[in-house]
Structures
1.
Amino acid sequence: MATQDKLYEGKAKILYATDEPDILLTVFKDDATAFNAQKRGTIAGKGEINCRMSAHLFRRLEAAGVPTHFIDCPQPHTMRVQAVRIVPIEVVVRNRAAGSLCKQTGLPLGLALEPPLVEFYYKNDALGDPLLTLDRVCVMQLATAEQVAELRQMALTINQILTAFFDQCGITLVDFKLEFGRVGDRLILADEISPDTCRLWDQAESDPDRRVMDKDRFRQDLGQVEAAYQRVLDRVLSQNT
Ligand code: UDP
């Protein structure tokens, strides 16, 4: 299977066409960006860690009945995926208050959100990925109200599965971002699920800095970024049940 044209290079991944029109290759990079690419750096080994972790979680989600774009990993930092039409909406699920939610609302860091909060952001770097309302989604013709309800339901199902899984790993799933695509009318989970796209807190640590196992270590210059990503992967891979 020879790789062909580079279709797109994003901040953390490169997408290639393959000989098969319905299959793409995603290569995960070590490059890291934050604050809409105003902060840039490299996290050694991140590409491989995020690829392996996403693959593991996609397999688990598939086994639980959630359709994903994942096919397999021909190399440690390379994933074969089904080609989809990406829905230009980033779906964020929050189990605890953190990040932009705290900044914009004043809610205290770590506040438990029950039921979980589901938010929609416009996937558009030039506009800084703004928060959407249902009415905005409809006016912008990004999706119908029915499709938004479907995105919300799938995101909540994924949250239930992932929260229970990370709990087994001794990790609190604070929040995470999902991207979806369509094949025909079918909605399927795409992109990645990794410490780049999730907030993950070590349940064995109470210190607000020491417990952080995700990209906030890079965003906030907390150090030990590679080690934290590796610890998440080790715990994820050691869970067989
Ligand atoms: N997130 C992401 N990509 C983005 C924006 C957010 O993966 O472009 C993830 C982020 O890592 C966190 C969750 O979505 O797990 C919620 O992020 P938030 O809105 O709090 O934004 P941030 O604090 O990252 O600016």
2.
Amino acid sequence: MTKLAIMGAMEEEITPLLEYFTDIKKIDYANNTYYECKLDNLDVVIAYSKIGKVFSTLTASTMIQKFGCDTLLFSGVAGGINPELKIGDLIVANKLSQHDLDITAFGHPHGYVPGGEVYVNTDENLKNIALEVAKENDIKIIEGIIATGDQFVADEKRKDFIQNTFNADALEMEGASVAVVCDALSVPCLILRAISDTADMDAGFNFDEFLVTSAKNSANFLMKVVEKL
Ligand code: OS5
């Protein structure tokens, strides 16, 4: 039987997910809280990692290696790069990269370190389920590249660099690290985000205004995907 990990980075990203569940068991582990619950016959573990690549790596690894999750779904918000992505719109990642990983001084491309790859892929099957769910429910979703880094981007120059270097459609702070963990441990993963801001000089204001509604958009859509698993 599938044991599903559902994670976000911030509390606001998992609050709307927890509302779908009753009978939630809280487990404290490694400076974080994990919520064990059931949905029909599905065992589910939910957690928010805290912000950034290190915390999200720890949480994804814990959900897989300690809790035994065999599928991982991420729900949250992102800064939009692709002009087609408006605040509230959904993006599902086909691949992700780390925009702040930089050993270019040694002649390597941005996002590359020996033994790794510039891009990490997500699971094709889960991504296709998300695209089908969007089609069936007439919900706009874009499939694209997400760039991850330990930086809240609120600057056109940095945004342009990320767009031009990685061909990214959106950016955030956790997706690529989660996808790297899942890839290494052969756990299929889905990275879903709804746009909260467009990573420009207004990003801080927009993020504060739209975090809760965009996180809900992502969570509600993710639960429609879960119904199909
Ligand atoms: O998890 C981080 C990445 N998320 C996606 C995202 C994003 N990433 C990078 N650049 C952008 N333009 C992005 N837009 C959306 C969202 C999240 C961003 S960091 C948010 C920090 C918010 C915050 N920090 N402190 N507080 C709120 C108040 C506070 C203080 C004490 C305790 C709790 C909260």
